[in-house]
Design a protein that fits this description.
six-stranded parallel beta sheet, 6 strands, globular
Length: about 190
């Protein structure tokens, strides 16, 4: 049976946005889907979340598909690096990167900026990640208020075997943009 790991958004849980819909779609396609609820999503610490995922690791061996969103894409890369996830398809939706527009993020995350800044500044070993033979697909929207498409491309160009899929008017791919289904993701699975 194919295995998929999906992670919810910051501030949300696994029952929100388009994850319940995607869980149903993947289950119909014979995937065993794991959607753990991460701890401490308001003031996340990447090491705490990696430990939480490691506790599920016996269920996550031989993953075929990983789909993560926004801030958790940094966590995805560290998880893939440390757990030597190989030969998987990885879809990063509206992925963050360490040098987001600092003033914008200070405005949006004023109460937790220092915590989030530590999260973003987690060092990634791109060379190690690139040896793991994963296919990486990155979804970016032209009107995302948090993610600059060109900056994200510059950051993620450090990854081999990466495809960028550009969307019009998908904002941050969440329910704030009235997105409860993301049919486009299915053609990449």
């Amino acid at each position: 049976m194919k295995k998929a790991l999906l992670l919810h958004w910051r501030w949300w849980d696994s029952n929100e946005n388009w994850l319940p819909w995607l869980n149903r779609e993947l289950t119909q396609k014979s995937f065993k889907v794991h959607i753990p609820n991460l701890p401490n999503t308001n003031t996340p610490a990447i090491r705490e979340q990696l430990t939480h995922l490691d506790n599920h690791n016996s269920n996550l061996e031989e993953l075929n598909l990983i789909i993560w969103h926004s801030l958790w894409c940094q966590l995805a890369m560290k998880f893939i690096e440390e757990n030597k996830i190989k030969n998987s398809k990885i879809i990063l939706v509206a992925p963050t990167y360490p040098w987001l527009a600092e003033e914008l993020w200070k405005e949006i995350l004023w109460d937790v900026y220092e915590t989030i800044e530590k999260y973003y500044n987690t060092q990634l070993d791109f060379e190690k990640i690139n040896t793991q033979n994963n296919e990486i697909i990155i979804f970016l929207s032209d009107n995302d208020p948090y993610i600059n498409m060109e900056n994200a491309k510059n950051y993620y160009k450090n990854l081999d075997n990466t495809k960028f899929v550009e969307f019009k008017n998908k904002w941050h791919f969440n329910k704030a943009a009235w997105i409860s289904e993301l049919d486009e993701i299915l053609k990449y699975i």
